[in-house]
Amino acid sequence: MLVDLPPLSFIKSSSVVGVDISNSWIRLVELSRNKKESLLLKSYAAEKLPSGAIIDGDIAQLGQVIDTMRRLWKKCGSSARHAAIALASENVMISTMTLNTTHAAQIEKLVIAEVEQRLGHAIAQTCMDFSIIATDKASTDTTEVLAATSAQDKIEDRLAVMESVGLTTRLVDISSYAAYAALLRHPKALAAPLLTQGIALLHMKEQHLHVSLLMQQQLVYEQTHPWQILNGQADDNESAIHDEPMLSLAFPPASQEIPELLPKPAPQNIVAVAVYALLTMQSALTSRYPANRAEHVRTIGQIFVAGHDADDLSETLTRQFNIPAFAAAPFAGMQLAVGIDEVQLAAESADYLIACGLAVRLLT
Questions:
Q1: Can you give the CATH number for the domain in which 115 is found?
Q2: Residue 307 contacts by C-beta under 8 Å, 6 or more apart in sequence?
Q3: What are the start-end ranges of the E strands in 120-167?
Q4: Do 182 and 356 touch, CB atoms closer than 8 A?
Q5: For 32-50, what is each residue's pLDDT tens digit?
Q6: 198 is in which domain, residue-wise?
Q7: What is the Cα–Cα distance from 110 to 124, expressed in whole angstroms?
Q8: Does the pLDDT value for residue 10 go beyond 70?
Q9: CATH code of residue 72
C-alpha cells in the first residue's frame, strides 16, 4: 500500500519533533520557527532502550519501546503534535526507475507494477511511497521516479510508538536521508554540487563507523565498519550500493596502504578506521562501476564527520585525501531556546543528527 500520512501544508509554523529510534536509544529533537522564520531549537533529549527491545532495527518488544518513549516525552516537556520518524536504510528497498509516461494518473500504477516485479510479490503487506526525480516532456516523454518500499509492520510499530504520546506522524523518512537533511545545513556544504561530485558522511557511533555517500540527491553507498580488529582485510559487512545511479568513483590517491585497525576507538584507531572506510568505499564502487569513459568518473566533493573529535578527524582526512572535510554541525545557525547549554549541545550534536534532520524535513 502507499504510505498514507496527513498533509504537511499546515504545520510550517508549528512545533515539530524528529524522533530517531535506534537499537539502543530513542532521541528526539523539537524545532519550530521564530518570528524571523529562522529555525528555533526548543528541546532535545534521549532515553536509553532496554536491551533487546529493538533488534537489528525491528521492534521486538513494543511495550518496552512505548514505555521508553513516554519517559522521553515527559523529560523533554514538548507540546508538539507533529512528528517525523525514520527507518534504517537496510529496512527499506530503494529503487529508481524510468517510466514511459509523464501523466500523473498513470505514474502511480506503473510504479506499483515495477515495485511488485522487483519484490517478486504483491505489495499488500508492504508500505511504498515514491517521488518524481525528473520529467522529460520535450523529447522522450519519460519520468524518473525514486521509490521506497518497506515491510508494513516496521512502519506501523513506529506509528504506534508516536501515537502513545499523542503525536501524529507526518513523515516517514530513511535515516540516512534524514542525516543528510541536517548535514547540508552546514554553512560550507556544497549548495549546488556538480553532477560528478558526491558528499560523504562518516558518522561515528558507539559500536561502529557508518559511512555513506550522497550524489545528485540520491544515496548511492552505505557501509558500517565496527571498531574492532580488521587486520587490513575487508570486514564481513557487505557494502550497500544503491540501485543504478552510481557509475564509478574517482578518489585522489592515498599515500599509504589500508592500515591495520586496532580493537578500541582511541583517536589513532578512529583515524585508521576512517581511512580504511573511505578506501573501501572507493574499492567497492570502482570494482562494480569501472570508469571506462571519462564522463562516468565520479569524485567526492566533500567529507563530513559526525562524532567525538570530529574536528581533528576532518583535518586529518583533508590532509590525507586532499578533499575538504568538516565536522558536522546539525544545529548550526539555529536559535536556541532558554535553558539549552550551547557547549553541551555542541558535544552531543552528532548523536542527534538523524532526529534533527527529521524535524528539519518537516519544517522545510
A1: 3.30.1490
A2: 202, 203, 204, 205, 313, 350
A3: 126-136, 142-151
A4: yes
A5: 988 777 899 999 999 999 9
A6: 191-327
A7: 16
A8: no
A9: 3.30.420.40
Is 228 inside a domain boundary?
A: yes
The answer to whether 98 and 144 are in contact (CB under 8 A) is yes
* Interatomic CA distance for residues 224 and 202, integer angstroms: 10
* Assessment of whether the complete model's pTM goes beyond 0.85: no
Reported residue count of the chain is 364
Query: How far is CA 51 from each of CA 46, 62, 308, 355, rounded to the nearest angstrom?
Result: 16, 13, 24, 21
- Identify each DSSP E strand in the chain by its residue range: 16-21, 25-33, 39-48, 54-55, 58-59, 82-87, 93-99, 126-136, 142-151, 168-174, 197-204, 208-215, 218-226, 240-241, 299-306, 325-327, 335-336
| Spatial contact of 213 and 199, defined as CB atoms under 8 Å apart | yes
**Residues 20 and 161 placed together within one structural domain of the fold:** yes
User: Does residue 4 lie in a domain region?
Assistant: no
Burial of 34 (0-12, 13-18, 19+ CB in 10 A): exposed
Which of 291, 316, 288 is closest to 303 using CA atoms? 316
Q: 187: left (phi > 0), else alpha (psi -120 to 50), else beta?
A: alpha
Q: Check residues 2 and 248 and name the one with the higher pLDDT.
A: 2
If pLDDT is split at 50, 70 and 90, which confidence band does 57 have?
Answer: confident
352 Cβ neighbours under 8 A, 6+ residues apart:
20, 27, 29, 44, 46, 330, 331
Q: Are residues 18 and 358 in contact, defined by beta-carbon separation less than 8 angstroms?
A: yes
Domain-terminating residue out of 131, 151, 171? 151
User: HSE (CB half, 13 Å, CA atoms) of 335?
Assistant: 11
**DSSP structure class, residue 207:** S
Mean pLDDT of all residues in 226-243 = 52
Q: What single-letter DSSP state applies at residue 167? A: P
State the total domains in the chain.
3
Residue 6's pLDDT band, with cuts at 50, 70 and 90, is: low
